Amino acid sequence: MTMSSQNPFTDDGHLAKEKEVLKSSAASTFSTETAETLVNTTSPFTRGHSLFINARGKALFRLPTPSSQLEIQICHPDASLAYVSTREKLWSGNCTLSSPQRGDLISTEYRFGPNREPVIRLSNDSEKVAPEIKITGRWTSRTTSFVLPDGSTFEWRYVKEIGPGGKKERFVVLDKIEVSGRRRVAHLLRNEQTRPSKTSKCTAGNGGELVFDRHALEVMDETLIVATCLLMLKKEVDRRRALQMFVLIGGASGGN
């Protein structure tokens, strides 16, 4: 038996039902499965500087392969390069975050699949072992948390709230968890004005504008905020790939 080279996600007929499953998933790409839905932010946030993450993500009707984008550029508003995230190879999730001025800054070990938590290693110019930060979160959850070497806890989550233009927007928010409550450090905004070109609201893992609180860098290093935000985008791509695999297998079995 020979395998057809035709993209199964563009076929009509027995994959119609699976297409609807994918469409439903796309509509909930930014859903708040385990996160709080907000109308207005409950933590003080004063907009500071911002960066633009040019991640293309994973489109809806595609084969469940990894993203072909091996290099993601993170730029200042004037389009000058701030950082570059570089993956080692197509089938590897490991990547290195670097800057034109300072070279390699953070390395991330990342493997596709459940129960494979990513590990971030900070750059270290000394002979000591570079500190590790383990990222935790359930495969079925969009919320992700991590603890810094000093013991402070942070969490990325999805929320809906009123955006800068007065409309309800979808944000990916980084909070510091404190005894008194949450303190917002930064958020990623993806809308028609901030999304990278050739991406849409149905794209999983696409970039946007990463906005920092005015005092964010007093709480966490900028490079770590960027690196953990990129991990959230990787997780979105993985969830999309897992669903595409399910649809592909379902379509193949349905044709027998």
CA(first)-CA(last) distance:
13 Å
Helix content: 10-25%
Main sheet: which strands, in order across? 1-2-3-4-5-6-7-8-9-10-11-12
H and E string: HEEEEEEEEEEEEH
Strand content: 25-35%
What is the arithmetic mean of pLDDT? 80
The number of helical segments is 2
Give a quick account of the main beta sheet: strands, pairing sense, barrel closure.
12 strands, antiparallel, barrel
Number of domains as seen in the coordinates: 1
From the helix content, strand content and strand pairing, which structural class follows?
alpha+beta
The coarse overall form would be globular
- Rg over C-alpha atoms, rounded to the nearest angstrom: 19 Å
Contiguous uncertain segments of 5+ residues: 1-19, 25-41
Count of extended strands: 12
Blueprint of the fold:
Elements: H1 16-27, E1 47-53, E2 71-75, E3 81-87, E4 95-99, E5 103-109, E6 119-122, E7 132-136, E8 144-147, E9 153-162, E10 168-178, E11 181-189, E12 209-213, H2 222-254
Antiparallel strand pairs: 1-2, 1-12, 2-3, 3-4, 4-5, 5-6, 6-7, 7-8, 8-9, 9-10, 10-11, 11-12
Helix pairs in contact: 1-2
Walkthrough of the structure:
- The protein is of the alpha+beta class and 256 residues long.
- A twelve-stranded antiparallel beta barrel has the order 1-2-3-4-5-6-7-8-9-10-11-12.
- The longest helix has 33 residues.
- The protein is built from two helices and twelve strands; from the N terminus they run αββββββββββββα.
- It has one domain.
- Helices cover 18% and strands 31% of the residues.
- α1 packs antiparallel against α2.
